[in-house]
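Inputs:
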Amino acid sequence: MTTRIVELRRGILKKNDELAAVLRERFEAVSVLVLNLVSSPGTGKTALLERTLEALKAGGRRAAVLAGDLETDNDARRLGASGAPVRQINTHGICHLDAEMIARHLEGWKGVALDQLDYLFIENVGNLVCPSSYDLGERIRVALLSVTEGEDKPLKYPALFNSADTAMITKIDLAEPCAFDRETALKNINEIRPGIRIFETSAKTGAGMEQWVQFLYSEAR
Amino acid sequence: MHELSLAASIVESVTESLGAYPGGRVLEVRLKVGALAAVAEDALQFCYGVATEGTALAGSRLIVNLLPVVMHCEQCGRDVELAGVQSFRCSLCGKPCFDLRQGRELEIEALEIDEGEIHTDQVRA
Ligand SMILES: Nc1nc2c(ncn2[C@@H]2O[C@H](COP(=O)(O)OP(=O)(O)OP(=O)(O)O)[C@@H](O)[C@H]2O)c(=O)[nH]1
Ligand SMILES: [Mg+2]
Ligand SMILES: [Zn+2]
């Protein structure tokens, strides 16, 4: 038996990273701002997007959504009510979206041409662990945390919060009944991702939506 | 848990690179995994056993070398290793750090392979 050590130095997610880089170039080339929304299940990603689509439409902007879920097209149906193009990505048990799924669902998407869009939102599968490793070619990764989940989530899921470009605290209308400690939550997010921009919103009352939409306007190119 | 997809990617990558060693069998796969790579080693080891079944990697060892997070501290003007992933402050001066230099790696570093009898086989063929 002859044994040999072979140096490989190969990224395990190399294929995903390469495809994400291709997507990112494609998005940049047509100036569509792509955002990847990540959070636990039920944090309010779809509810935020419902309000966001409404606001962008009122502002004359064109937006579309790719909605990832394990099963069901409930989110796509909810979001479709806005009139914006929405396509569901069912992962059938896979706990995250990857760049290949994005590329595949951009193909043959009826009535949607990327160069006609100002924004493309990607709602990731509700999961605070796995999506952090998969680049989807987005420009902005938004990590969401609801007041009902507890202030220590960023400390428990540092890989995800550290990979985010923007953070959002959702369901702030429930802060009081949940005895949500805002200062601690902000501090924890800042420990994991110092200096990150943090939005605080309620999809129920609309609080904080104005700052968020202003941010979207200012980031568009 | 995405350890099964990771294990499958490892099998795919390693099988590809085995093309250069026909008849080769993998004895060991060495990984570099950053503290922020969101990988649970136990789960990965388990999935590796499943994913390698019936492949040239069957029965091989998976060695996981964990890498701590390294940030560049502007204040200190140097790279500093963090003690954990609960706080992204410089371990020397306490200032928050923004510039990640190590910690997201998810990489196959090296393989140990058994080349077997391939040389004589190749000569005959
Ligand atoms: N009170 C209150 N409830 C909210 C708010 N946002 C969402 N919800 C409720 O929280 C639940 C989950 O909201 P979704 O928008 O479906 O959450 P999600 O993150 O899209 O969930 P998944 O896609 O399943 O991961 C629903 O019952 C919403 O009505 C909010 O701002 N305030
Ligand atoms: Mg949803
Ligand atoms: Zn320092």
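The longest helix of chain B spans residues 3-18. Flag for discussion at group meeting.
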